[in-house]
Amino acid sequence: MVQSAGHKLRVFQLLFSDPGRSFYSSGDKVSGSVQLEAAQPCKVTGLRVTAAGCARVEHRGGKNRKSRSQEVEYLKYEEELRLEELLSKDSDGRFLLEPGKTYSWKFGFELPPAGRLVSSYKGKFGCVCYYARAVLDRPSQHGLQCEREFEVEEPLDVNRPDLLAPAAASKQKKVTCMFIPDGQVSISAQIDRKGFCEGEDITINAKFENTCSRIVIPKAAIIAKHSYLADGHTKVLHQKLSAVRGDHIISGMCDMWQGKTIRVPKLKPSLLGCDIIKVDYALMIYLHIPGSEKLMLELPLVIGTIPFSGVGSRTSSMSSQAGSLSSWASFPSAPPSYSNIHKDLRVDGPRTPLLYDYDGGEDEDEEGGLFMRASEMYYPPPPAYSEVDQDPVNPPQVVQVF
């Protein structure tokens, strides 16, 4: 909006018809109006509205830190508004804005169909932006401009067959100590589908084995990978969004996650279809190994906008899951963990560090180590019992205990 006596205009602004709308999608109509109010008599020659949307990447790289940039256009629109509908034209083809009056002209355009538009995005090295701009032409002067951005969000349905299919992977690693073999660790993991939306829980089934001499810790995290392409060079940024962890696994033991969950936090949907910017998500499952690099595997995720309906054929998903889990059948179910007992039942007391869990600076929000408690302060004793028969009908009898 322009408010300037020097420009002889008190108001020059572009407004959308539905200012409370959060976003538009392909095929939607974007409409609004351009308002003008003069502070003193003012002559203009034309008024037009343009709309544009493009993806832009800019970053530096290489030995000389050369700047690289690239753009891709997704929306282009221009409309000449008819000033003569509200204003009179003089012999020179100019229109007069009288002070004290507010003039308004409507505009509208339709967004491209599905497949030709990508969602709005703003990142460290690039963005996808959409805006509408009004340009007011004046005689013998530069044109005045005002613009307003709008968001585009393309629908992404996680109920597509390819996103309902499960994802599974396994990986192992040999561990060494001073170049001497020290056993190995392994991970096998599966999730029942690839597509999720904000607020949904991802159910993880995993098996961890540890035959090395160290105590290892299983963890899982949702990560985002942002890729920016410019002039044939790609810059990639990784971001850790949320994480869960399991109990430590001592040497010669294994552990299983059966139905362990991690919730999808509030985040933007996967960015698909853009030629130069891509945002992918993955579930990273890994083992922290003190004194060695982590053992990591990634399962692909697609974050959508239309949540899982729970309706549809899941035969292939279930059969694949059964096949993946059949190799785990020989392992007994994991014993109940004291961590499942309500916190109020625990007795607070001094704690002695057992193992510090340094994770390379990625888990600053986690505890600094694992702890054990003194034996006399574990949990409340079992319920009291009596060695005297409390039957009210028969007389009390003393039961001898040998």
From TrEMBL:
Transmembrane segments: none annotated. The keyword Cytoplasm applies. It comes from the Eukaryota. Keywords: Cell cycle, Cytoplasm, Disulfide bond, Isopeptide bond, Phosphoprotein, Transcription, Transcription regulation, Ubl conjugation. Residues 181-308 form the Arrestin C-terminal-like domain. GO terms for cellular component: cytoplasm. Its main location: cytoplasm. The keyword rRNA-binding does not apply. One of its GO terms (molecular function) is ubiquitin protein ligase binding. One of its GO terms (biological process) is protein transport. InterPro entries: Arrestin-like_C, Arrestin-like_N, Arrestin_C-like, Arrestin_domain-protein, Ig_E-set. It is found in: Cytoplasm. Coiled coil: none annotated. Homodimer; disulfide-linked. Interacts with TXN/thioredoxin through its redox-active site. Interacts with transcriptional repressors ZBTB16, ZBTB32 and HDAC1. Interacts with DDIT4. Belongs to the arrestin family. May act as an oxidative stress mediator by inhibiting thioredoxin activity or by limiting its bioavailability. Interacts with COPS5 and restores COPS5-induced suppression of CDKN1B stability, blocking the COPS5-mediated translocation of CDKN1B from the nucleus to the cytoplasm. Functions as a transcriptional repressor, possibly by acting as a bridge molecule between transcription factors and corepressor complexes, and over-expression will induce G0/G1 cell cycle arrest. Required for the maturation of natural killer cells. Acts as a suppressor of tumor cell growth. This is Thioredoxin-interacting protein. It comes from Anabas testudineus.
